[in-house]
Amino acid sequence: MKKATLLIAAIAVASLFPAARSFAAGDTKAGNITISAPWARATFAKAKTAAAYMTLNNSGDKADTLIGVKSAIAQKTGIHRTTMENGIMKMGAVGSIEVPAGGMAMLKPGGHHVMFMGLVQPLKEGANFPLTLVFAKASEVTVTVQILKPGAMGGAAMRHQH
Amino acid sequence: MQRRWLILGLIAVLAVSAAATWNLVHTVKKASTPPPVAIGGPFNLVDHNAGPVTDADFRGRYLLVFFGYTYCPDVCPKAMQTIGVALDQLGKDAAKIRPLFISVDPERDTPEVLKSFVKNFHPSLTGLTGSPRQVQAAAKAYRVYYGKVKEDGGAKDEYLMNHSAGLYLMGADGKFITMFSHNTTPEDLAAKIRKYL
Ligand SMILES: [Cu+2]
User: Of A18, A35, B34, B125, whose CB count within 10 A is highest?
Assistant: First the structure.
């Protein structure tokens, strides 16, 4: 009886921190690469595209490169980058993203992102989906991308980084 | 005697070069201020409820105008979110402002698509589209550049767009007031807009 009460209390306490839990679970390791807090914005009902962001840390003494991305949520998944030139915004495919030795690469709004074109269905806030990252050196790895609100800036995910 | 002439000469040379420098600085300064081109002007577009609208329909309200396309999942939603949060921070004053998202991709951004897009960000956000010619005219009035970019091997409707990404604040009289970077934080945007209200 006492044991059961304790268990219920523990569950209640744990459920108070759902965000912390999911973001801690969002850290994935592949060789020397740690992938932190992958997230995407929820999309509007008729959206055909989406983008995912994350931080890649390299604890190794050699640079590694993200060379491919794969997902089942869209017809096409690719590595993209947004750049600004003379006030003109450009977005396009880039072949890869380098993660320097002992350093990191950030995928964030307005910069590098994983681009999904031809969404199979809209991304719903609170849900998640698997995304496979292919590195030149580290093994191929599948991460879970958390879907945040449509206007998310990534701030919440950043704060929960470890 | 000769020495005195030398000194006088030196002073003269100094005076001339100082004047020249001053002139140069002045000219450079003048050249770096942008030429007074009017930004904004009349437009005929279609709103996200498929009704026709013109710039005159918004007189009496400040406009916050952004040109973009809904196929862009990266910066365009971020810019719209910035506007939405800034308007929330402006409280009652937000009623004086009408934010407009003008699509530079009229082929894919139908009123229906725009409606689905804008409601994610702020109740007063209005999505505008139109015929390619109508959109072109509106973009020209705002000195906005846009162009299609096709990816190799992509389907016909899989292009991306390059586009100007400024955020324009227009007065209640429809005249240009100022422009913000799409990168402005919501807090900054709200504070800057408040100064003009
Ligand atoms: Cu992209």
Answer: A35
